[in-house]
Write a structure and sequence with these properties.
mainly alpha; 225 residues; single chain; Endonuclease III, domain 1
Length: 225
């Protein structure tokens, strides 16, 4: 398979499809700084996790419309409170028309609240754990979420982190197609080995360009016809 092209060549491909370098540059997203991420209350991390879980395989528009009801039903997503949800609480939520009544996804709120409480005990706050995670091991963060969080494997975790402003890549269909074209992987990266290859390629492009992973990810996606 071919060796990955330098980032400058990938940027040129994407810019040619998106109105030129200046126009394309304006579309590239920004990520939050570690200080900004650390300042986000842990209840907002749980809310974003929950939104990502419920959006998976479902209409994002429906979830957005119902979201105020989610905030009320889960009492603003305080991790300590949500981690202590009883079976009676879960039964009540299964009957609550303000939310999408999926038992496994409702249960994941309590499980992810417990996970965030564990991170807080380890790092002072869950936000600190996300804020201080190194970009060169973003794949390790995805692995952590897959192993210790609930229903946050694959792109659900990636969209959750992106929504919070964490610098990282999203392995969307077009990004995966670009990675295959560049010889980084041969198919959708689902194994730890392939994910390590993806991380290595992104780290190389990041070092070369000085750009955040989020912008590199967007550039790869836009380089696809």
């Amino acid at each position: 398979m071919p060796s990955p092209r330098p980032f400058e060549a990938l940027f040129a491909l994407a810019a040619a499809r998106k109105g030129g370098p200046d126009a394309f540059e304006l579309t590239l997203p920004a990520s939050k700084t570690p200080a900004e991420l650390a300042a986000i209350p842990d209840d907002r991390w749980l809310a974003a996790m929950t939104r990502a879980v419920f959006q998976a395989g479902f209409s994002w528009k429906v979830i957005a419309t119902k979201w105020p009801g989610f905030e009320d039903a889960f009492r603003a997503f305080a991790p300590g409170r949500c981690s202590l949800m009883s079976d009676d609480d879960l039964d009540t939520l299964l009957k609550d028309k303000r939310i999408v009544r999926n038992g496994a996804k409702i249960r994941s709120v309590a499980e992810n609240a417990t996970f965030l409480c564990e991170l807080a005990a380890e790092h002072g706050s869950a936000a600190n754990a996300f804020a201080n995670w190194p970009a060169e091991d973003y794949a390790g963060l995805l692995t952590l979420l897959k192993k210790r969080a609930s229903r946050l494997g694959g792109t659900s975790a990636q969209y959750f982190l992106r929504s919070m402003g964490v610098d990282g890549f999203v392995l969307s269909r077009d990004v995966v197609r670009a990675l295959i074209r560049e010889g980084v992987v041969e198919k959708e990266p689902t194994t730890l080995r392939d994910l390590a290859r993806v991380q290595a390629a992104f780290t190389c492009w990041r070092t070369e360009s000085g750009r955040p992973l989020t912008q590199i990810s967007r550039t790869l996606a836009c380089s696809i016809e």
